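Example record used in the benchmark description.
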Amino acid sequence: DIGHSRGDDKAVAGYLEQARKVAPGNAAVATAWGRYQYLHSNFESAKEAFLDAARLDPGLAAPHAELGALYFARLGEPDKSIRHYRRAVELAPKTVDYRYALSSVLSTEGRIDEALAVLRETHQIVPEDPYPLQLEASILISHGRPGEALQALEQAATLDAANAQVYWAQGEVNMQLGKLDAARKAFETMLALTPDAFAAHTRIGLCYQLEGDFANAEEAYQRALAIEPRDALALNNLAYGALDQPGREAQALGWAQQAVAIVQDNPEFLDTLGLAQMANEQLTDAAETLSKAVTIAANYSPAHYHLAQVYEQSGEVAKARRHYEAAAAGNGEE
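Model output (structure tokens):
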């Protein structure tokens, strides 16, 4: 352990070899050897060491947990991973990290109800800890169950009213549900706890923008940029909103250019830049920008639609028709 903390890999290997010679039947030593092999990408050797540890001490949970991680992350055998994580939980039922790992694998494999059951059992073990509820909400969100996720997050907030991440998640879920006022209040609560959370200002701006209130949205975005000048989403949203304000086309172009300079391959940001270039009568630049957007995201309908508009204005009817057809066939909103 000391050798590992010092980054002295040679010492680590030497001490482990000695430990294996001195105590060849020791499960803890075999587990440590397995971890060493894992860290050096010797996954088959790691597996054999962990299996050996499990045979040497059938009541030891650690090698089963290590096998759970190995089978899932490195060997591509999720069923074996689940089996070993379940055994680790059986042997050490109060070790919540094993439960979190098991729920993660179950969720990834689409076994949602099983994953949720594990987390709800975990909540019974640590009833004052909001983390199982946060994980439950995360799984529910990722599988299209925002209403249930919100209930879990409300419970988490009652357990830890100072947990900023709970309010961030509440805001995100309320936005999914179209409850923009509730979302804004959640992000404001987060900011009261973590004033430098620029992303919360950006989310508040987006809530206002979705309500058609660009004046308040712009103030929120500017607050985000005062904290983090490279907040590309705030810059993009400012540009997009400014394009609807008469006489602000040049300002919109500047913001859009900054956003794309920070995040160069985002099709939405490129689409906004293309729109701004079109609004400033820079049709050649707009065609180049929007062509890049549809190259990155071939099914992104808004960029196809705007590129078609550029070609139509340029008199290139065949190209315009092709991109209008692509817009109609794609998965965007326009």
